[in-house]
Structure formats: C-alpha cells, structure tokens
Amino acid sequence: MNLLGLDRKGLEGFFAEMGEKPFRASQILKWVHGRGVTDFEAMTDLSKALRARLADEAEVRVPEAVMDQNSEDGTRKWLLRLDGSNAIEAVLIPEKNRETLCISSQVGCALECSFCSTGYQGFNRNLSTAEIIGQLWYVNRILEREGEGRQVTNVVFMGMGEPLLNFKNVVPASELMKDDHAYGLSKRRVTLSTSGVIPYLDRLTEVSDVSLAVSLHAPNDELRNELVPINRKYPIAELLAACRRYIADKPHRSITWEYVMLDGVNDTDAHARELVDLLGDIPSKVNLIPFNPFPEAPYRRSSDARIRAFARILSDAGLVATTRKTRGDDIDGACGQLVGKVADRTRRQEKRARREQVTGA
Ligand code: SAH
Ligand code: SF4
After folding, report:
1. Beta-strand pair 255-261/284-290
2. Which of 99, 148, 243, 324 has the most C-beta neighbours closer than 10 Å?
3. Do 107 and 52 share a structural domain?
4. Residues 245, 116 share a domain
5. Same domain for 81 and 37?
6. Contact 319, 279 (CB under 8 A)
7. What is the span of the domain harbouring residue 111?
8. Which atom of ligand 1 is nearest to the CA of 162?
9. pLDDT by residue, tens only, the chain of 361 residues
10. Is any atom of ligand 1 closer than 6 Å to the C-beta of 266?
C-alpha cells in the first residue's frame, strides 16, 4: 500500500482496518505531504510499534525525475518516470507572487483534439492518485531544497491527459491538494481543465468545489466538432448547461473558458461575437491561448494584433478576457506541447502513418 496516494478519507479507512484512530490520518498527511518525510522511522509522534507495523505493511513511494529542463523565462519542466516505458511531464511556471504547477493526469490522452500534441501521442493509461499527487510532492521538495521558502501555490490540471476521464484518481488527488494538513491550497488555487466530459462533470458537481476551466475553443458545434472531437458526443449546449450546474450552488464562482487562437480557423471578429452571444449570462472568464506549434500541427498561431482585436470584442461586451502568456515554449513546456513518453496502446501514430501513405497526404 503506497500511502502517498491516500487522501484523508482513504487514510482513515486504512487506519480503521489496522484498529487505529482516525487522527492518524492527519499525522501521516503532515509528515508525508507537509514535511516531505517518507521514512516511517522518522515519524516521531507515532508509537514505535505503529512505525514498525507501517514499515511492514505500507510504504511511501515517491516519483523520480529522469530529466529536468529550464526555460529562459524561468519555466521548468520535469520528466517523471513511471513504470518501465512510460513517463509524464510536469511544468512549474514561476510568477511574481505565485508558483503554478501544471500537472498530468494520464499517460497521453485518449481524445484527439486536432491542435494538441498530447493527443497526437496516443494513450497508455490513467495515472494513480499517488502518481498525480507525486508531481506536487516532488516539486515542493525541489523548491524546499533550493531554499527561500518557495512552495507551489497553484495547481492546474493542464498537463497531459483529460482529468475527468480519470475521475476516480483525480478527485482524491485534488482533495489532498486542498487538505490543510497536506498542501492546504484553497479551492480557488486548484483548477481542473476539461474538454467537457459531461457525465463526469456532473459527478464532479456533486463531490468537488475546485475551479473549473473548460476547453471551448470554438463558438459553434460545427467548428468544435472538428477541433475537439468529443464535442460530437457532448455538444456545446449540453456542456454549457452542465457548467451552469457546476457553479449553481457555489457563490461568486465563474467558469474559465479556454480558447486556443488558431490563425484563420477560430479567430475572426465574427467568432468573437458568436462567443459573446453563446456565453450570455454565465459568469465567465475567457482565457485566450496563443496556439503553441508542434511538428505535426496543421495550424499557425494567430497574430498578436488579431488576438488583441478578438480580446477587445469580448471585453467591450463585458466579458473578462485575458491572454495567456506563452511560457516555456523553448523547452516544449507550453500548453499542448507536453508529450512525456507514452507507450501508445491506441496505435494512433501507426494508423495515421498508414492513412497518410494511402492518401499521399
Ligand atoms: N485535457 C484537458 C487539460 C489538458 S490541456 C483539456 O483539454 O482541457 C490544457 C489546455 O491547453 C487546454 O485548454 C488545451 O485545449 C490547451 N491546448 C492543447 N494544445 C494546445 C496547443 N498546441 N496550443 C495551445 N493550447 C493548447
Ligand atoms: Fe486531450 Fe486535452 Fe489534448 Fe484534447 S486538449 S487531446 S482533451 S489533453
């Protein structure tokens, strides 16, 4: 049993089975996540007997980085090894008053958004809760070691994978992030980004209060079907209704809509006006993301002037519109550029190569 991946509820269950009191959960959370201690012997507020039993029956297994890269703008990226052939990436984006960590939830992604490099890599498997929270655990230890009291202040599920398709492990990981004895991040500082898997979004509404970012990228179904193929299953009107439900009982909350800016594809004035009409009275923030290129991508980034004009139409209509600063692109650490090492089980790249051979594309 790897205790790194158990949230408070999970730990309480674990200790109940051992015949121990629930407060043991808080002790373990503080040691493991708060202080970074993995050796039960060093957990001095546990009895000697309990420490020995834990050493026998459990472990705290943490991730290992096989590569670490630094961008000129201060962004840092780690490649974390999982089992033999798989590895995932986590990216730290330092800013003046915060340290944002972008984490992965799956090895690759099973969805195939046409502008996303992760989608092109194919998919292998879900990350365990330990592998998800392990990214935060690891980066906090690095920051501690480097001194100056820096810690991760914000976490975004915007790395590799679709977090809602790994619901069962993502939810306990986000609970750990918010737990006062573990990382103590407020619900506003933990953001889940999704392409809109509605059934799981509705389940999230029941159990979680993290901030929600939704990858919209197009103001109508015809275009969104092409860019975000899962839209064919869960179209825009139903997605917006599920988003309204998500914030309905959460006062002062809004949805962040992510919108990648693709030159000549989704970035005209008409698209911007359509977007304004679509979002209507939903409490919204729109985050424009300049497209980050990768070798197979059939798109170009919209010009800065175009992005400014698009943002202007949104803000003139009363929407909060921001443009995401491109960070870490020199180390392929920007949005949509994470590839890790995916032992693809969908044979996506193979199939594409065959298709291209046939069509001569
Ligand atoms: N699967 C989730 C979260 C990971 S992607 C989702 O799709 O929301 C995080 C954000 O980066 C998403 O909004 C995604 O659409 C965007 N993105 C993907 N590829 C990109 C690219 N090449 N350039 C810019 N943004 C991209
Ligand atoms: Fe998957 Fe998100 Fe990339 Fe789409 S944008 S392929 S959902 S990681």
Report:
1. parallel
2. 243
3. no
4. yes
5. no
6. yes
7. 64-359
8. 1
9. 999 999 999 999 999 999 999 999 999 999 999 999 999 999 999 999 999 999 999 999 999 999 999 999 999 999 999 887 889 999 999 999 999 999 999 999 999 999 999 888 899 999 999 999 999 999 999 999 987 789 999 999 999 999 999 999 999 999 999 999 999 999 999 999 999 999 999 999 999 999 999 999 999 999 999 999 999 999 999 999 999 999 999 988 999 999 999 999 999 999 999 999 999 999 999 999 999 998 889 999 999 999 999 999 999 999 999 999 888 888 887 777 777 788 788 777 777 676 666 655 4
10. no
For tokens 């650490």, what's the residue? 333
Atom of ligand 1 nearest to the CA of 157: 3
- 88-92 long-range contacts (CB < 8 A, ≥24 apart) are 88/127, 88/131, 88/135, 88/159, 88/160, 88/340, 89/159, 89/160, 89/333, 89/338, 89/339, 89/340, 90/135, 90/138, 90/139, 90/159, 91/159, 91/328, 91/333, 91/338, 92/139, 92/152
| Closest CA to ligand 1's atom 26 | 336
Q: Ligand 1: does its nearest atom lie under 6 Å from the Cβ of 292? A: yes
Read off the CATH number of the domain in which 53 is found: 1.10.150.530
195 CB within 6 A, ligand 2: yes
Ligand 2 proximity of 117 Cβ (cutoff 6 Å):
no
Q: Is 110 touching ligand 1 by the criterion CB < 6 Å? A: no
Shared domain check, 241 and 213: yes
Q: If you take atom 24 of ligand 1, which residue's CA is the nearest one?
A: 291
Same domain, 53 and 126: no
111, 166, 287, 344, best to mutate for ligand 2 pocket (most atoms within 8 Å of CB): 111
Same domain, 46 and 96: no
Atom of ligand 2 nearest to the CA of 112: 6
Please tell me the total count of domains within the chain: 2
Verify that 78 and 183 share a domain, yes or no: yes
